[in-house]
């Protein structure tokens, strides 16, 4: 069954949840950079665990020194930013442990990053974690964001691009 779920369909790509938790519409993220879609189309998750997994097969293209985010490029060219929490760059890497490096190939469900959820709750403005397609405008494809309330990391399809 999982092979069918992640099988590439010509012209279609499914992006699954990177975290376990409650799904939040991007428009409801309490940060204008995300809720006004300045970075691109996407969705967010209010995490219940401190682990980020890969939502696609692809490669790691960015991990900032602050370790609070990770950038991926899918095999079909979608550029995905996973930004753990809000105002987390100010934590200067504290509470974050990357498990991959820039240039690594990754597969759906592979662990990318661990974070101390309690530490983030105490020291950041929010734990809500946006997943944004940063090249929305240049993909020239339609995107459909799923209307689900809960996400299971590595399994729940959140965004379909075709």
From TrEMBL:
Keyword Transport: yes
Keyword RNA-binding: no
Keywords: Kinase, Phosphotransferase system, Sugar transport, Transferase, Transport
Entry-linked Pfam families: PTS_EIIA_1
Source domain of life: Bacteria
Major place of residence: cytoplasm
Protein's cellular compartments: Cytoplasm
Domain PTS EIIA type-1: 31-135
InterPro entries hit by this protein: Dup_hybrid_motif, PTS_EIIA_1_perm, PTS_EIIA_component
Designated name of the protein: PTS glucose transporter subunit IIA
Taxonomic source organism: Pallidibacillus thermolactis
Species lineage: Bacteria, Bacillati, Bacillota, Bacilli, Bacillales
